[in-house]
Amino acid sequence: MNVLMVASECAPFVKTGGLADVVGALPGALARHGVDARVMLPCYPSLFPLLPKGVEVASFGDLPGGSGRLVMVEASSETAGLTLLLLDAPQLFDRAGKPYNGPDGQDWPDNHRRFGSLAQAAARICFDGLEGWKPDVLHAHDWQAALAPVYLKQTGRTVPKTVMTIHNIAFQGRYGPQVMPELGLRHDWFHADGLEFYGDLSFLKAGLVYADHVTTVSPNYAREILTPRFGMGLEGVLQARTETLTGILNGIDTTAWDPSNDPALPAPYDVKTLKAKSASRLALAGKLGLDTDHAGPLFCVISRLTEQKGLDALAAAIPHLVDQGGQLAVLGTGEPALEALFQQAAQDHPGRVGTFIGYDEGFSHLVQGGADAILIPSRFEPCGLTQLYGLRYGTLPVVARTGGLADTVIDANAAALAAKCANGFVFDEVTPEAISAALDRVFAAYADPKQWQAMMRAAMRQPVGWEEQAGAYVSLYESLLQ
Ligand SMILES: Nc1ncnc2c1ncn2[C@@H]1O[C@H](COP(=O)(O)OP(=O)(O)O[C@H]2O[C@H](CO)[C@@H](O)[C@H](O)[C@H]2O)[C@@H](O)[C@H]1O
């Protein structure tokens, strides 16, 4: 079976968040099930070095954003081989800045054309194929790829089948109706049951309406987005699709994220050598200027600093965390006000709170390796990957009961502790008080090394790889093709 993945990010080549991890790891996992999945991506500057190694397999004269060519390249990351299909259109993608915004932090004003072009190129290659390779399924990820199923539907053909995955429903790609003609979308589909969302064109809604199947990245989030609290205005669209909406939990790349073999850690450790984790703690403390002789638990945050992640509430609980004897390592970048809060916390609590504002993949491994617990107080979380990395590294997740966090973290309540399956701490409200109460439970557990280590072992033994989840995608693809 052939699958064309269409996305705006793919680790390790271009990443702003968890979408990239999934798109980078899922094809390799699908390959082990006999699926040939290829990833179509915009050719951003970080991908230019790959171009000379590739071959041009298609060219387009009239995408919404002008001309472009498609270059196929076998790209190998440290851990896996991937076949990438790069949409090389310099007028759209050869820009300084980030995938979605310029150096000034503002969204590129032509994002509808940039990602409309990606989607249209993807739809066009489905029929002619690429040197004998034709997709049976087109799998679009998030709003940036969401018009691909629509362009396919506009042709009236029924193959390939289309899957639309929601990684984050908060980002919808919403533009005024004036962009409709330049995107080549059917005007008679611009209505409330089609492309239109409160007078605008919504890329994500369009994908949700016209894809053959919709998935999101955890079973719990698949239920949550049917409600006004989590659906971000799209709950009605999704309620109409409950028969064709599935939650498939994300996995992680357990080769790239392996504490027994991670070049970012000063010493390897595994479930039998938990004590060796202390070398990572020392290295992390040294890097962030934290006291190295501190006895209490070292918490960490690794996150985009945005409203979604509930970190304003966490920041308000930092004095309590410090008073109770904790330390905190923060790695993040995002909203300036949140960056300032954590920088201030580091100044207020020298030796106890260390903040690194920036994006650093290698350092994120050391933070996972060195911390005792990872704090994830998200207001909503479709799946969450950092708690999965935390489990794998014996860094116990302390999470809000939402989305995929609730699906993956087993709270240290009496029953779970007795059954030796507790692997973290779960709290209900994203408030400084509830976070402080959860921290108190962490401090109590940490004071009992036997119990803490039992939890670390339970965490590290939890299967978090892609094996099972990739199988779920294969079953879904097969059911669509029947
Ligand atoms: N400053 C920094 N430096 C280095 N690495 C950093 C970093 N900040 C974040 N990261 C990394 O970025 C990724 C974030 O992934 P998440 O799944 O936790 O959230 P995100 O909201 O981006 O993803 C969305 O998509 C994913 C994938 O489906 C869903 O799991 C999630 O719930 C949804 O919100 C992780 O790999 C993390 O280590």
From TrEMBL:
All copies of domain Starch synthase catalytic, residue ranges: 2-239
Pathway membership, UniProt: Glycan biosynthesis; glycogen biosynthesis
InterPro entries referenced in this protein's UniProt entry, alphabetically: Glyco_trans_1, GS/SS, Starch_synth_cat_dom
UniProt keyword Glycosyltransferase, yes or no: yes
Recorded GO CC terms: cytosol
One GO MF term: alpha-1,4-glucan glucosyltransferase (ADP-glucose donor) activity
Lineage: superkingdom: Bacteria
Broad enzyme group: transferase
Keywords: Glycogen biosynthesis, Glycosyltransferase, Transferase
Biological role: Synthesizes alpha-1,4-glucan chains using ADP-glucose.
Family to which this protein belongs: Belongs to the glycosyltransferase 1 family. Bacterial/plant glycogen synthase subfamily.
Protein's name in the database: Glycogen synthase
Lineage summary: Bacteria, Pseudomonadati, Pseudomonadota, Alphaproteobacteria, Rhodobacterales
Encoding gene (name): glgA
